[in-house]
Structures are given as structure tokens and as C-alpha cells.
Amino acid sequence: MIDALISFVNENLGVLFVIAIFPGLAFILGFVIFAVWYQRKYLARLMIRMGPVHCGGRMGWLQLIADAMKLVAKELIFPRAANKTLFLFASVVLPVIPAAMIALIPFAPGLIIYDAAGVSLLVFFAISTLFPVVSVIRGWAANNKFTIIGAFRNIYLDIAGEIPVFLASIGVMIWAGTYDLNEIVLKQASMWFIVPQFLGFIVFFIGFLAMIEKVPFDIPTAETELIYGPNTEYSGAMFLNMMEADYINLLAWTLLMITLYFGGYNGPPIFADPVLNGVFWILVKLIIAITIIFTITISYARLRIDQAVKMGWNYLLPLSILNILLTLAMKFYLGGV
Amino acid sequence: MTTPIKRYSPFGEIEEVGEGLFKLNVGPQHPISGQGRFIVLTDGERVFDIEVDIGYSHRGIEKILEYKTFVQGIVPVERMVMLDTSNILMGYVGAIEKVMDIEPPPRANYIRTIIMEMNRIVSHLYALGLLSESAAWNPAVFLWTTADREPFLDLLEMLTGARWSYSFFVPGGVRADIPRGFIERLKATLDWFEKRIEVYEEAWIYNELFRMRTEGMGVVSRQNAIEWGLAGPNLRASGVPYDTRKNEPYAAYGELDFKIVTHTAGDSYARGWARVEEMKVSIDIIRQAIDNMPDGPVRVRMPPRPKPGEALFRVETGRGEMNVYIVSDGKEKPYRIKISPASFRNFYTIEMLPKTQEILLADVPVLIYSFDPWFLDADR
Amino acid sequence: MAGSEVKRPGFLARVVKPFIHVARHALKSPVTHKYPFERIKGFERTRGYITLNMDTCIGCGACGYACPDEAIYFFPVEGRKYTYPAIDYGKCSFCGLCVETCPTASLAHTDLVELAGYEYEELVYMPSELKPINIKEVLPEVRRFLITTMTKDGPKYILFKEGGED
Asked: How high is the ipTM of this complex?
């Protein structure tokens, strides 16, 4: 039996490595820790102060580990009238959904967790539609007036943001001629898709901010009106889960944006090994993208939910349809890529 | 959650207001509420009624003042509101000077004016920061304004010895003269601050999303503003040119030349804008006061006990007009002091607004903080 | 109904300029200082901890009468003639009226404000304990002392003294 186990591990070492270490579990959790630390330090700089400086030297890089340890050690509080099963269920399942979306993104030629034969972009969107469903469950199960208002707002926001994102990526699909994320990246070797798809990128970007619920669209988690939105009643390790869900969602959608519009893992060959080169460039683009997103988070105000829905349906939807028509025209006359 | 909701109408009867409504306790334990409670009757998005519950921070300052002599009383009075201490202290000290019939020397008046205007800048900066943080979740502007108050607080510490509880005015003048190096540092700070206001204007006031959140929301018409007793920059943003510094000048305001800023819109955007404009007016007043300051003593002798009598004194604090009424029966402690703060009346407007227009739940923080009410001020 | 008096600049100024202003703040140095390793030195008039000079005090009681918080009590001290004031820092509001009223100028302010204790009784300082306190006793980790100044570009911290006594 041990021999069978050893031979199983030996044969599938590659897959296990990819699932558990990179770009799987360890990378995702490591990214969450890095992103929260980076956000706290960078936003502190923008607010002309220092971020965490005590834990782990002047950079404070151990602060997040200390926070995680503290949160795990705290008591799990269940409100008496809450539906305990669904309360726990939502907290456990919510971080898993964006993690499943990361499985479809190519990090380097050949480095992809799950290669969905030819339809990976569609599978990505299909999994992403589960997020609002579980989000409503978490808001309803807590039996609190503030959380249920947050859950309703999550539905509205999803209505506002999802359609423009899908239609903008249809533009990319038409231009590239394929549904597969791997091939979309390969076709951007010469020119990134942001150039022919500029209008689509603007629509995608605003809808993408709505999907990851960052200012100006962080309406469900409107802290000043609804304490913490649908997450209000979570404490201890469940709170940690909710934070992870937020940042893994950010990672998944940012990686999709980089893959669709910014060339994925393409980049000038600094390293000889193509896998290492691809990983390096995608990480560099990721850090630049989250820096810009964090700066946007702090420069603008939060919209009201009716203003967000109005923006999604009055402005973004016609623009995205215009983008599709333009793409069809360009592909017909210029031959596409 | 679908039981009919009953409540007391303004005439005391119980009336039914609807089905499927619930009451949210935007209460003392909430990120935006401060030390009080707002009971919001809502159906999830639309707000039908707001009830303000004050009294959480009542300290009985008016009663405490009956047991302190006139000079000792400056310490409890200025702790009424932490932000705006010198304006409130001016009300107390002015009322006592009126009852005792003494006049502070002109140099003391100018020093008082400088301190009060610096206090007004500090208070409006904090209000602007709170409006941006609570209304629109932009902690950057909140932290910038908090950081920009520091040079002013350092200046006040250089002059008076403390950062917010100055205890500097006494009946008869101020406690000390201006130290060396103060005027140069004040001028440098004002020059720097004028450039900072431009940054705030460009980054925040002209910001499209902030405008979308606050424009056209919480409109208080001119008629309503006068009827409901609104005060301060809120009143001036609804088009009423009323400022106690011009109507009944006290300290050195009668000799200085400044304008009152009014807007006709009356919405939350105009109220935020009115505060920024008032900060510019304050800079102007401080500059004039520095240039025209007379020489002389800073304190006159105060008689230990006044003649029996009454006096009323009005000041313009950062929130609006405050009245102080003192009754003295000839002893060295006052018989009764009644303080009527401005925030008490501003809260009434918050209650009346859902009755005149449609307000959404997401607008409640914007509404509350555009009036800049302080529960400490209302509770005394 | 809209805020019509406030001008509405062009699209770029409304939407892009806030982003640029925020991003420019990343280049400024922070306005916070690392307390307790750095401490800002107070000004001349800062009203902090009050010290008593027992050689000049005559025990007249003017400070006790002037105090608005009834924080001054009088106790005899062995070997000395008069009764001397003890200050209860749990009640003191640091207003400085006692310092002002003293006819022999025996009370003086310092700029120390780190007076916390674990029990209420610890906060009552007897006349013999009202001596100047070294900052290193209450704040052992302090290494640098700073002063705030105002320059053309804004407020800055200047190093006053590194290490040593304050």
C-alpha cells in the first residue's frame, strides 16, 4: 500500500506541486497575506503616515501573521437566532469560489492547474456567478437587519456589474477567435489586447471594480452605514475567511484582467527558462495592477446602489455593445489576429 | 418583520405607518453615530423617519458651574465640546464681563479673535474630514485633515500651553501675551495652509463621485431653515446671510472687515462647500488681526463679585450661534447659567428632513455629517 | 436644486485629478513619529506635570482655593515649618490656575504628561514627591527628541537631541 502511495505521488508530483504550492494553495494564501500587508503600508503612505512598524522590524511584515494568529485564537460567536449550518457554510465556501477561478488562469506556458479543453474563459465566468449566491446566504443566515440589507445590495451590485464585464470580454473573444485563456495569452505575444480593445477595457475595468467590491463600488460592505455589511456577525476564524474571500476575489479578477488585456505572462525574456520568465512577468504585472487599484480605492467616494445600477445599465451596457460592433468591424476589415 | 409599526405622531396620537418596515438602531455602537442614537425607520432602502436620541453624554455642566467661581468656571465650560473650546469659552466669559460691566483691553480682544478663528479652522477641518470618511468612505481625506490640524494645534500650544483645552480667556482679558516667534510662525502656517486648501478643493470638493453622493440631497429650503432653527454654516448654505459675528459683533470682529459666504442650494454639497469657504474667511480675519493689533495690557482687574443682574451673550461657534444667559445674585459664584448650544437645534432639522423629501438609507450618513452635529454640544 | 454656484471643471479635472493628488502624497514623508522611541519636546508654556519648590512655599493655600477640581490637599512635611500642597493627578485638569495664583512662584509646569498609574492612590503625589521627573524613568525606550517646525513645504520634525537626558 505504501508502494502504491509513493508511486502515485511520484507520477503526479507535478500536479500536486501545482495545486498545493504554486499557483495553488500556498501561493493564494501567501498572496492574501502579502496583499493585506501591502495595502496597509501603501495606503498608509498615501495618508502620510506609516503602516504597521512594530511587528517584524520597520517594515512590519510579521503583523499579518500576528493578526491571523489572534483571529484564529478568538471565540467563534454564533448569534442565537442565526441558522448555524448556513452561517458556517457560507463562511467556509465563500473563499473557495474565487480560488477555483484561479485554477483556470495560465501562469506560464504549461503552468496551469486545470486546463479546461478550449472553454476556460466560459468556465471562469460560470464559477464566478456562484459568488453572489453564497454572499446572499451569508447575509441572510446571520438574522440581523444590517446583514440582510447588505445581502440585498450584493444582488443589486451583481446585476450592475456582471453584464458589462461579460460583454466586454466577448469583445476579446471575438478578436482572438477563441474561448481558451491559454490561446488568448499566446495570441498577445506581439501586441497586448488593450490596444485594439481600449473601449472594452474601460467598460471591463469599471465592471471589474464592481465585481471585486472596491470603492467606488464597495456598497454591500458599506461600513459607515451598515457596520460591515453581510459580514457583520462573523468573528474569529470566520472573519478571517471573509477577509480571505475578499482578497482572493481580488486576485482572481485581477489575473483575468491581466490575461485578457495585458498579455498574461508575455514579456521580454529576462530569464532563459520560459516558465520562470512567465511567472516573473505575471507577478510584476499583478503588483502594478493592485497598486493602481488600491490608489483608486482611496481617491474616490462610494456610490449609492441606485447610482451604481444606473451606471451599469445606462452607460456601460451601450458602450460594451458598441465595443462588440467595433470589434466585428475591425476583424472584418483588418483581418484580426 | 411584517408586523404593522405604530408610532407617536407629533400630536401625541398613535398612528400606523406601514407594514414591512423595521427600525434600525444606528446607535451608540456604530461607526458613524457618535455618542448618540439615531432610530431609523426604514424598509431596506427608503427612510421614513429618523428619531434622534440624545442624552448619552450629559454631564450637567450648567449645574457644575453654580459651584465654581467665575475664574474656576472656565475649566468645565470649555470641556463642553472638545473641538471648539475657545468659542464656547468666549460665550461664558463675555456673559460674565457683561454682568460685571468690565471691558477687556483692545489687545486682549485681538488675541481672542486670533485664537477663536484658529479654532474655527481646526473645527471645520475636522468636520470636513468626518464628512468625507463617513459619507463616502474615503479615509484619505480624513487623515489629511487630521494631519493638517497639527500645525495649528502646535501654534495654539505655543501661545496658550495646551492643544485643545486652552483655559486662556478669563473675565477681564487673556492670561498671557503673545510669545516671541509666534507671529512669524503663524504667518508661515497660514501661507502653507492656503495651498493645502487648494489641494482639498481639487482632490475632494471637485471630485465627481463626491459630488454625485452629496449634490441635491438633504435640501433645506430657506423658509424651512428659518422655521426649524438651523444654525451656523448650514444656515448660510441655505441662503440666509446670518452671522453673529456681523450682527452683534464681539471681541474684535466689529473692527475687522470680512464677508459672509452664502449659497442658495441648501443641499449637503453646499454645506460642505460652505465650510471650506469659511476656512478661507478665517485665514483672512487672522491676517487682518495680526496686522492691526494694538499694543497695551492684556488683562484688566476683575472684581471678585458682580452686582446682581442678568446678561445674555451670543457667540458664533463652529456649529452655529450659541447663547449664554447668566443670572447673578451678587455672590462670587453665579446663581444660574443657561447655555443654549447650536447642535441641539441642528438635530431637529435632521428629524424633520424625512418628512419633506425622499431619503435613502445610504444617504443617512451624508445627511448627518453635512450638518456637523455634535452630541457633546447638544447634551452639555 | 444642484450646487450651482460651485463651478464644475472639465472631465479630467473632476475624475483624474483626485487620483493624481492622492498618488502624489506617496512621496511625502510621514507626519507621524514613532512614539515611544521618539518624543516631541513641548513648548515653553506647555502645561504638564507640576513641580513644587518646598523651600519657597509658605503654605498659604491660594493654590488650593484656586483649583477648580479640588485636586490640591495640604499635608505637613517632617522637618519643615508649613503644610505643603499635594496634587491629585487623577483630578487635575492641568489648567494652570494654581501656578498662576502662587504668590511665591513655587509651583512650575514641566512638559511631562506620562503620569499613568495602576491605581487611583498612586496618582496622588505627596509634597515630597513633587520633584522633577526624568523622562527616562517613565518612558525608558525613548531615544530621540524632536521639535516641530513650519517650513515652506509644510510641517517638519527637527531632531533636537539624540539619546541622553531630556
From this structure: 0.86
